[in-house]
Design goal:
The chain has 645 residues and is α/β, with parallel strands linked by helices. The protein has 4 domains: 79 residues, no CATH class; 213 residues, Orthogonal Bundle (Hypothetical protein af1432); 134 residues, 3-Layer(aba) Sandwich (Rossmann fold); 154 residues, Alpha-Beta Plaits. Helices cover 61% and strands 9% of the residues. It is built from 29 helices and 13 strands. The protein has a 6-stranded mixed sheet, with helices on both faces. It has a 5-stranded parallel sheet with strand order 2-1-3-4-5, with helices on both faces. A two-stranded antiparallel sheet has the order 9-10. Helix 12 runs antiparallel to helix 13. The chain is elongated, with a radius of gyration of 30 Å. The protein starts with a helix and ends with a strand.
Length: 645
């Protein structure tokens, strides 16, 4: 099967937002829409209105006054974020169940919700991207999987049944490509672009779905969004973990380490995300699991796993030998004598044997104990052997189990039926103990081979992650000022060029605020360079607190800093500059060798004032700083015009 996007769109089968979601989508496709129209559309759905206000109040720092009206929510979130969240919430309401029984729709949305909350928290914590936009992208990043399961339920169910490791990204993409000629990443990109999502968001979601985390051609904004989604997914994996959580913790800590967040920091962040996930789950009526304990001890356990603290080769050899001597086998038969004989011969051969007298009991034990081998009778009352096999193959845990069927018939049609159901081997009854043990031995070899392959894969993935982490650390170091932790001049030049290139697509121009610390040389000369460094660090903290999520503050020289405002008029930038000037002048610095206050001079320039490129814009802001110093310092000056004294 090869899917054509346009034919798929024309067919009308793709998931689409109903009601208010579609109304907002249509409104925003018009050129003359206004905020009041969007607010009115949202208010038509009280539940959606409440969710939008909740997101708006969680998207900014706690110092921002809480909002209570839809109009305020629209202004705070922005139209494109609002459109995305309306689409996401509408899809959740309408696509909670479908024909594809192998695809858990509610759990899909629960995981998407956890990823959304996680990406939002990471974006807010690391300032990678706008938190509300990260939330929306996290919520809708898996829409391609939803579409494939919805439009092609039988084919997608077959993929799930045939691929026990579909949770693995490479396995999923390969299986989808073989079945459809494309992947869920392709479908997500097509649908989101068709809905009018920004190209930057569509590309970031595509990169995330394909596992691309640090491509050199990505813009900083796109890299930031992909990083937020990737770490959000790692937190989501921990939230939806249905068993031992140490592996999920290890993956999360490794991902967090790559962006400079330590184990304690990610423990706290994950705890906050888990709590918020449960809150949102209640709001959206989605299931949330009982979560693994986010404790320092479990974190330490996971850290140990990621640091390469493995058993010695001698210990591993002993463990493997013990496993071979005592492989766990689940024996299933409704006849007591037959079950007793099977157990006797298997235990005599050195195996650990679990027993069940019915298919239902066997399924429960298999889900709890995960035995590598199952020996089951075919003909049993209630759930028979083939029904048990089919049920097991529907779950990831049961797909890797080696299943041997006991049957009283060697009929060709029945044997074919049994293999079609998913068995790996069969033994005819009454069974020969030597033949049964030989077949179990074959299953044991397969189980050990699967474990070895899985271990090799884990080792390879761990090595790849370590390399990726190293690369991310090196890249982060190359664009970060070591003293203040702010982005450096290299990052500033790249971000300015990016904002300049995108200014025509945005409703507002871009602006720059150049900042210079007044009399900084005197601080160094009189109090020493250690005091000067302390002043730079304190001032950088003040700057960081005063800039908004979509603004970038960078250190570009000794005492020179630059604020990049991608969507700001000259007046907006002047207000930002004055806010920074006032905050610095009010901040008391208490460092070794220096106690007091400093002031800053600021120059403001906007792309409204020049069409000669970003270098000219930078020169305008620099010239304004010199004027501010010449006119007495501690003031904000617009290019050509002083605005404060």
């Amino acid at each position: 099967m090869r899917i054509d996007f346009e034919e798929l769109k024309i067919s009308g089968k793709l998931p689409s937002p109903p009601g208010v979601g579609m109304a907002i989508l249509r409104l925003t496709q018009k050129e003359d829409y206004c905020i009041a129209e969007i607010a009115e559309a949202i208010q038509a759905d009280p539940a959606l209105a409440g969710r939008v206000i909740k997101l708006a109040n969680s998207s900014k720092a706690a110092t921002v006054n809480p909002i209570v009206s839809i109009e305020e929510a629209v202004k705070r979130l922005g139209v494109r974020t609002l459109k995305a969240i309306a689409l996401g919430f509408s899809l959740i309401s309408s696509y909670r169940e479908g024909v594809c029984t192998a695809f858990d729709f509610e759990m899909f949305w629960s995981e998407s919700l956890a990823r959304a909350v996680g990406a939002q928290a990471v974006a807010n914590h690391q300032q990678f991207a706008d938190p509300a936009e990260a939330y929306c992208c996290g919520l809708l990043a898996g829409v391609g999987r939803l579409a494939l399961a919805w439009v092609y339920p039988d084919e997608y169910a077959a993929i799930l049944d045939k691929n026990p490791d579909l949770g693995d990204l490479d396995t999923r993409l390969r299986a989808e490509s073989e079945a459809f000629g494309l992947t869920n990443a392709d479908v997500s990109e097509f649908m989101l672009a068709d809905w009018g999502f920004p190209a930057e968001h569509v590309g970031a979601i595509g990169d995330f779905c394909r596992g691309r985390e640090d491509e050199s051609e990505m813009t900083p904004a796109r890299r930031g969004l992909v990083s937020a989604l990737s770490l959000g997914q790692a937190i989501a994996d921990l939230c939806v973990q249905d068993g031992e959580a140490s592996d999920a913790w290890a993956r999360l800590i490794a991902a967090a380490d790559g962006i400079g967040v330590d184990a304690e920091g990610i423990r706290s962040l994950a705890s906050d995300v888990a709590s918020s996930w449960a809150d949102w789950g209640a709001v959206l009526s989605l299931p949330t699991r009982s979560l693994p304990v986010f404790s320092p001890s479990s974190t330490a356990k996971a850290e140990g796993a990621t640091s390469g603290d493995r058993a010695t080769s001698e210990d591993a050899a002993i463990t493997q030998a013990t496993a071979r001597e005592k492989c766990r086998v689940l024996a299933v038969d409704d006849e007591r004598l037959s079950l007793k004989l099977i157990r006797h011969h298997l235990e005599k051969a050195g195996h650990e044997v679990l027993v069940a007298s019915s298919g239902d009991q066997a399924l429960e034990i298999a889900m709890q104990e995960d035995p590598p081998i199952i020996v089951t009778d075919w003909r049993m009352p209630g759930m028979d052997g083939l029904d048990l096999v089919r049920m097991l193959r529907r779950y990831e845990r049961g797909r890797a189990t080696y299943i041997i069927l006991l049957t009283g018939s060697d009929d060709e049609e029945q044997v074919v039926e049994a293999f079609d159901a998913g068995i790996d081997d069969y033994v005819t009854k009454p069974f020969n103990p030597r033949v049964l043990l030989a077949r179990v031995g074959a299953g044991e070899r397969v189980a050990h081979l699967q474990e070895q392959v899985a271990e090799d894969k884990r080792t390879q993935q761990r090595q790849m992650k370590e390399l990726a982490i190293l690369n991310r650390k090196l890249k982060k170091a190359s664009i970060t000022d070591a003293l203040t932790g702010l982005p450096n001049r290299r990052y500033a030049m790249e971000r300015m060029q990016e904002a300049w290139s995108g200014r025509e697509r945005l409703p507002k121009p871009m602006a720059l605020v150049m900042i210079d610390i007044d009399h900084f040389k005197q601080v160094n000369d009189q109090f020493g360079h250690a005091a000067g460094d302390a002043v730079l660090q304190k001032v950088a903290e003040v700057f960081r607190e005063q800039v908004r999520n979509d603004e970038s503050i960078c250190r570009i020289g000794g005492e020179e800093f630059l604020v990049i405002l991608p969507q700001a008029t000259l007046e907006d930038a002047a207000k930002c500059a004055e806010r920074i000037r006032t905050a610095v002048a009010s901040a008391k610095i208490d460092a070794e060798g220096f106690r007091g206050r400093v002031t800053v001079s600021l120059g403001v320039a906007s792309s409204e004032q020049t069409d000669q490129g970003v270098e000219h814009l930078l020169n305008l802001s620099d010239a304004a700083v010199y004027r501010a110093k010449a006119e007495g310092r501690n003031r904000v000056v617009l290019a050509d015009t002083p605005v404060h004294t």
